[in-house]
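Form 7-S
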Amino acid sequence: MNKSRPHVRSIENVSGILLSVKDASSGLATLNETYTFRNETQPRVAVLQGDLNSGSGNLSSVLIAGALGAGDSIYNIATTDSQTFNPSINATVAQMYYGALREVNVVTLPHGPGDITETLIWDQISGAVVEVDLSDPAYGTGDSVSIKLASTNMWSQSTAKDLAVDSNPLSQELVPGHQTSFLLIVTGFGGLAGSISLSLTHPSEIGAYLNTTAITLNSDETAYTTLTVAAPSNLAPALYVLNVTAQSGLTVRYAAVTVFIEPPDFLLFASPTFFPAGQVGSAVILVVSLNDFNGTIGLSLADPIGLTGSCDPTLVSVNTTDSLSAADCTFSSSTPGSYTASITGNNGQLSHSQTLYVTVTPTPTTPDFYMNVNPNFLDIAQGSSANTTVTLTALNGFKGYITLTGVGELGLFETFTPRTVNLQSASATAVMSVQVRPGLQTSIPYDIKIIGANGTGFSALVHTAIVDAIVNRPPQPDFAITGDQLSISFDSSQSGMIGFNIAGQNGFASDVTLTTNISPSEGLSLDCSARISVTNSPTLGTCSLHSSTPGLYHVTLIATVGGRSHSATITVTIGDFSLTSSSSFFSANAGSRGTSTITIEPLYGFTEKVDLTVSTPLGVSCSLSQTTIIGSGTTTLTCNSDTPGTYKVTVYAPAYRKTIEETFTVNSQRQPASTLLGLQPELFYAIVGSMIGFTIALIAIAVVLKHRH
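Output:
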């Protein structure tokens, strides 16, 4: 059995396949395989030969040995080599083919990320293939095809009463954390009728159930039911086989379905590029999401000696909605030759590489032109358009008119401005606009061939370039809510206001319901409109805030319509300050001054002006060194009184309703002045000073008289 798998699209035009056995003996078989086509292509005949024991030859999956059963390998392991693909049979069940119930062997082939899922069914007695189911995950399209036996001369159609149970599809891929369903087909033959019981056995690692366990058939009737399979989010990649049993009296028949558990992954595809030496060529790198892969992939390019390349962008994102993205890798070289570069995609956990084939052709020796396109891939929504620039470069003195034509698939419409380019200098450009009709299948790269022709007929000078158009779903009508500011602050003595706007997107127009969430839930109140009408133009709104509790709050505005909601979070800071004193009491003697320091400390970023006043009882006089403080600072409270006693002095911040009370104590009455030798101190010190001065004068006179003698 060959490891290579056909692409689903490669057989979509096949109308029938006829297999004729020419010779079969000693495990060797020769067959003629004739393909007929829908598009008037002549039939194609191939000769298939192979060894049923070892798998050698080109029989592939057409014929295997007879009399095999569940668990058996397709080929005799002792005779196969390491290159032979040799899977084991998953199940042996009874199913109806060409009017007869046949025991058949079922195999769902293991495969890698992005490969075709292939389920093969062979008649157990003859070993002839009776059904092939293919599904192709490439580009996320989910293409599938079923090839089933239509007629044979190996057995006759049966008229006996019997029962058959079948599944559509026979196998599916399933991503952990998701579920899928199979359609079960129960058919009675030969007049079989009555109640049919259904039961299910499945591996314990997965969940599965039938939507009914009993159905009733009329004579020769077909009935349908559903098998649902669910994969836990932590289920390891593997192949799981589930068996459905249908029973009518003593008649028991089985159907086997297989489920491949596939983890999220991505694929890389690289297109080859050709360009003349000295010019620039470009290649498209396609990145495809598989199995609900959602993430950003970093792209790195390794180019060989003689070739210089770079890719843009180097980070691409894919997800379940936009499962296809692309990057443009450009190359330059002055040396003709064939080169291979390598592009690697890595998201930190998964890494895949793809080979890029680059051909640098010799520079033309006659006048010619070169055509390059930038960008060479276009992301276009259904019903929209996108542009790319076509650059025409003259080689060896080329001058002339070049007519541009676009050839794309149905549903893509190409126009050029200008359509005919007069290339009279080194280079000239034109713009190609690509319009996508609504409804064109999405997440598929569509090739657009740009043809540039100088002249007509066989003598025309013609070059081509390829652009990939990636068609995405048009953006759905939606809306967004944003706050005017990410954060606001106000003081506990004030009321605040937050502003926001809600804008519709892509034609959205509806009323939305506005709710709020405040964390912490206490200390701040919010008043907003409950319902707001939204259009494509921004709708402005405000909410009023009230709080007397300083702190940091997170206010989330939640706009909801239907089952969809968007939110904006704004940080609200309620500022405040503390009013404290250096001591809760201070004192002075009667007639003297006492002082205390009053301090303002900001809380939660408080920066406002605070006006202070002081209130005193009768008999006390007080003042503040500063009556206004901004944000933070200190002021000195000075008090005096001639009357002994204890007084309560209050400092106010009236705008903030804050006070601090001080106790001012006046110790006693003013004391009479003390005396020295019965004299008042002032008089005593005046007399002493005069006596000292007189004594100094006498000494000075005596010194002068002595010198004269």
